[in-house]
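Entry 14. Two folds queued back to back today. First construct below, sequence then structure tokens.
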Amino acid sequence: CFFPGLKDILNYCCIIDVFLFQIECLECCGKYLYVGIRDSFVIQYTLEEVQDGEGRTLFSYTKQRQRYLGYKKPVVQIKASSALNRVICLCDGNLVFTDMSDLEPQNYPSKVKSVSCFCLNENPGGNNPFVIELCVARKRQLQLYGLTEDKLSHIKDITLPETALTIAMDGQYVCAALSSQYVIADCWNSFSQHLFPYESDLTTPLVKRITRDLLRLYCLYYCTSPVLMLQLLSCLQEGLEPIKNKRHSLDSIIDSPSIWQVLIKRKIKFSVRLIITFNETQFQKTFLKIQQQAGFIQLSLFMFEEAKELFLKGLLDIRELISIYPSLLPASSDFVRCVPPLHDIADVEQLCQNSPGKLEECKIFLMTFLEEIQSKPGIGFKLEVDTALLKLYAELNKEKLIILVSSGDNGCDPAEGADYLFNHQHYHGLALFHKTRGDLEKALQTWSKLVAGEYTDSCFPGLEYLVQILACLQDHKLVWKYADFVMERDQNLAIKIFTERPSNDPPTERMRPDVVVDFLHRYPVALVLFLEYLVFQRKLEKEKYHTHLAVLYLENILRLRKSQSIDPIKVTDARKKLQHLLHFSSAYRVQLLLGKALENNLHAECAILYGKLEEHEKALRILVHKLEDYTGAENYCLRLSEGKERKTRHRLFHTLLGVYLDPDLDEKHREELLAPAVQLLNSEEAEFDAVKVLQLIPEQWSVAIVDQFLNKALRTSLHRLCTTRIESALARGENLQTRFSKIHIEQDVLVLTDDRVCGVCKRPFTEAAFAWYPNNIIIHPQCAKNSLMCPVTGNVFGCTDLKPR
């Protein structure tokens, strides 16, 4: 650490207490010296200047007091501010404020914790001398505070890429040493700038403010610069003639390419560290080439991470690296290796002789390296990079190959890429490669051969993928070319070609529903699915589609009934589909379907069709007598009466009640239907005319049977009576108000003479109609744009002011 003036003081002052405890930090301010020690104590000393007998200036010390900060960890940093009479200590990540004179703790409302280091701004921008600026480093963040005697105010935050280890502040700038680099931050603009990196395992970073607008950075290497120079000279002597005079300048050493070549070959790690250490602008080109050479040396040693880092820093032409891999450069590339060469590697196969594992590692290294640089802008050489990746993926990673060839931004040569994929039997990738280049015919040919089994490729998803491609294809001629091919293999999948067309699919004659229906007559399963799509999804109200679908449903039911092993579940499901269609649609030919349903004793379907013909009694008799579905009969009435007027609802429920109470029924049936008839009368959802019900029920019924119905009917009748009376009273009141308004209007008299003109257009009145505003302005009705505002004077009237004329 550096403490102004403290060095001279310590030269003349021996503090005995230093042997009793371990000092962690020091701060000197005026006559006070503050010492932070390991056990969370701060000790205050006073220093006095005295003269000895020989006239020399000496210093004496007196221990004044000590203060325990309340933590178990050392006090790692102390700063004193004489302007505020405050001492600021950092202990266990907490900022502690004490009085400068007696070290009494000073409590501030704001607590600052998790602090790695802090500093004071010795060149603040404010004009108030009693406000000091305090910069605090926390996790990946700098925080700026304003400190007064009684208040700590947070000003702003600046984000850092890493946590600061030490900081110094001058004006608006803060220089910070992070865990691997130095940065400088502009507090006013919340902006940080990278300065240069350093090695944290070899360096103790320091930042010190020297004077106004001058910050000095220190990188204290454990191996100091003289040692580096001796190591450098020692390395050179191993490969060159003995150096007679070791007093060489650093510039002459850096400028010598032959020296660097020997150095790199013999001391790779050391030379790379020197390159980083001495990387000045004037040596940039030399350094780039040296880093490239070092990268190839690391690659020859199979140090892949180190090689990648050097290639990136040396801005290597990626073709130099691809060229050592046989057959990866495209045939159309005109690349020639650098002269003089950067390396002595013929190719990686020669480098990895008798070691297939190492060869695969080299290929994986190139693949990952190309992936990394591919995402960076401005790299160039897209033809070479994409071609190399395609060939590497074909060998090492089929999933990534599919992604690459599916990309429309693939820079591979079309002919070379297609030949390579075909020769290496990546047929699905080949089809995608053709598709992304617009050659759909070749792509579909390849996929169809995969489906047919002529080609095999584990990456191909199967027939469903081909169907998805055809469904999205806007070239309808190609769609029809392969429609039969996929229909013959799976009708349930193939129908998606026609039912999952994109919304932007161009309407053409080839894709009209009639054309598709005619085509699908050879494929009955697909035909049913397509008609369902037209009826239920597209909701086309075309009679032939609805009737056709209903007939197909009916034929399927009959076929299931006639089969030798009848499956009741399948028959029930098939009938439910038909019944749903009959309920849902009103566009089919009812009489045609009714005849077929009667012929085959499909009673539930007959009831629905009778309902479509408004023959409700026939429908209800089927539900009650044929199916004995009393709940279904009531639901029939509720469904058909929904949204209808009261008379219609009454007629439906009276019809059902009449079916239950049919006098032509024998005694046994009448007794069986007594319970559903009473249940219908007592239903909360059914609606009846009580008078007609009393006319329908048998005379022998007791009052107890219809007691609940009569109570409900009486309540309903009284409710309607009260409602009617209220409505009548409201109507009479409205009538009185209207008559009063009419009388009030007729009290005023207006004489409209021939010479009277409109207040807006200034034309005479040729008809009896006119608009009269409350301020006696008269205009034509067509000139009255707003009934609440006079167009002549601009007066605005309320609704009560208006008098209609």
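Second construct, same run, same settings:
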Amino acid sequence: MAAGDLGELLVPYMPTIRVPKSGDRVYKTECAFSYDSPDSEGGLYVCMNTFLGFGREHIERHYRKTGQCVYLHLKRHVIEKVPGASGGALPKRRNAKLFLDLEANGDLSSDDFEYEDEAKLVIFPDHYEISLPNIEELPALVTIASDALLSAKSPYRKQDPDSWEEELQASKHAKSLVQLDNGVRIPPSGWKCSKCDLRENLWLNLTDGSVLCGKWFFDGSGGNGHAMEHYKETGYPLAVKLGTITPDGADVYSFDEEEPVLDPHIAKHLAHFGIDMLQMQVAENGLRDNDIKPRVSEWEVIQEAGVKLKPMYGPGYTGMKNLGNSCYLNAVMQAIFSIPEFQRAYVGNLPRIFDYSPLDPTQDFNTQMAKLGHGLLSGQYSKPPVKSELIEQVMKEEHKPQQNGISPQMFKAFVSKDHTEFSSNRQQDAQEFFLHLINLVERNPVGSENPSDVFRFLVEERTQCCQSRKVRYTERVDYIMQLPVAMEAATNKDELIAYELKRREAEAARRAPPELVRAKIPFSACLQAFSEPSNVEDFWSSALQAKSAGVKSSRFASFPQYLVVQIKKFTFGLDWIPKKLDVSIDMPDFLDINHLRAMGLQPGEEELPDIAPPIIIPEDPKDRMMNHFVEYIDESSVMQLAEMGFPLEACRKAVYYTGNMGAEVAFNWIIAHMEEPDFAEPLVVPVFGGAASSGVTGFGAVGLDNQPPEEMVSIIISMGFQRSLAIQALKATNNNLERALEWIFSHPELEEEDGEPALSVMDLENHTNANILAETRSGGPRIKDGPGRYELFGFISHMGTSTMSGHYVCHLKKEGRWVIYNDLRVCASERPPKDLGYIYFYHRIPS
């Protein structure tokens, strides 16, 4: 076709073709609805107006919905190199046809194969194709737009230079790094800075093997900066953070480039100092079982190192790429999409979700959940290599690599948006992310079934005044059963004492530490600790109308369909640095907690009067708007929340803004405010000098329009109640949050006000346990009560010393056998370490 003809062909579409500007997100590496990419067989179509990418299965949907006709089609081909005269491949040369910013396929040898990228314009609906580049024949606008799109940076790079979201780049020093042959060998544990006594935040210099403390790298941990001083003295540029090394990589920092970097040769560089980051694959390379030494390190036991593991492929056995400390997300999402209710809600409704998705599906929670669920469950991205097919493809001179696993980059970018911690590349707490995800699920309903209902349950709390012996019963909503670690019940105390003595002796003598002895804790002791009464700090007795000693105990007012159990392994040291209890707990395959069923007010018990604590009016009139604010923060409640894995400053704010009413109420505040950009920012106590004139009220203060404070309303809504009921309850109790919750549970007969619809009963056809579905009345939280007998079907394990570092893997029971999900590696499990888990998933056994 002549140049003029091409120009005339594109004239009708010119108003729809845009040139990407600064700030535009260009999705040229991944489909918005699937994990297709330019590497896929059908390539990727990028809209020349919205810059969204679509695979071959989804491009027609976007065309029909938007009427957009012009797309840039991108395709990467893998070509077998032409053999040279000696029979080998021709020497590698720079390929001018390689212009897509894609990762190389690690399964292909660069000596035998090379890449070739292809770009062309496609005009719908006739699929008319125009090859690029075609500068002479195309209008200038089209050429400029195409070039700008091809050169656009990843949409996951944030413009904020302080953001950790920016993708890591390979260091310029990695390929040519010089390593000194000085005989240094790094032990697997017991590290200490060679210039001071610090044992945290340690960095291994990859040139000379020096172990030195950091100062501000990655997690902001304290240090004396000896690693940086060493670089200034020697010029040795790269260091790896000890404690972050896994089979998938490690945290590497370049002093010269002044930023975190990727080291494509990290395995080789670590091996120079005796560190085998791929040791879990040794058995697959030919070692016999009797050649393998017993392994006790949690890194080895949890990842089943030294055991030949059979890779698993097909639907439900798809791995997920680690994006850089994103294993917490991978582990949680593998567990979530092993649950039928989530499969039905998102994958079962996939056509409807996709058809009704907004114009930008990358910013829609339900679309991205359906995309992720389909990617994990379809088997499309988990296919075993077939040698016969490979030979046939090579004969045709084009290799079509199988995509093994998915990269949850688009999903992570959306669910972590505006969240200080999850939007970073730092390691996070899987339990905190689980609650964050549940919050998003509840805020984005999909159809008549809300899959998060399967986790929700009611907790009955019994509080007793020790002096008057009177009691109060209240109920709250929860999603996780948190079990304390009963260290005092360890069955191997003598071994632990002996080990600690040997460890201290070895440390003093600078010897390798002795073989680890892990505390063995009976599960029954943890369950007993959960049910035992605890003291209530700063308890105000309405019977005495004064402060008194009080005790509180918790029971299940309802049992969830799926019980999530968290072992509270994380605590804080005296230096406020998170620590982890390395313990072994004999978690049962079958669990019966019917004995923890709440009984309510018992015969002979007398209830505490329904009297609220007096409101203290400050002497200074200008501070009267702060009459509900507290002058101190209950640090014990702060510590309880921090041990759950929430940021310390967020915990302090939660306790402050809920008036020191206990960790449970503060927990609900956290759930309601996790999405706020300043969630983890330091607490700033508001000043209300001019509040009366401006109409500003603090949390707990009565608004000038007689409306309850929005903070309190949000907390109650987060528990699953309707807004109108929350307002009515707060007004009826003078904005006392604790009494408002009691009021709600004592008035279940109330209908919804203001024309708001009541919570509908879920479609019973979607539930196999319909006979035990127990929907509460209008206005109450949706629960699925039933018997408290459960069977274990999955657990998430953590390796490392704190939530700030380490690695997560997930074990799930599928088709009668255990499977380990370790990021991209999905294998049949031979020795599932059920005693070392952090979060356990149980499903109810039907009666």
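Quick look at the second one. The chain has a mean pLDDT of 80. Residues 799 and 807 are 5 Å apart (CA to CA).
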